[in-house]
Amino acid sequence: MENTNNNWVSMSDKAIISTIGRYVKEQRLLQNKTQAKIAEAAGVNRWTVSQLEKGEAVSLISLLQILRALDLLHVLDNFKLETKLSPLELAKLDKQKRQRARGKDDNKQNESEW
Question: Is the pTM of this model over 0.85?
Answer without folding.
Answer: no
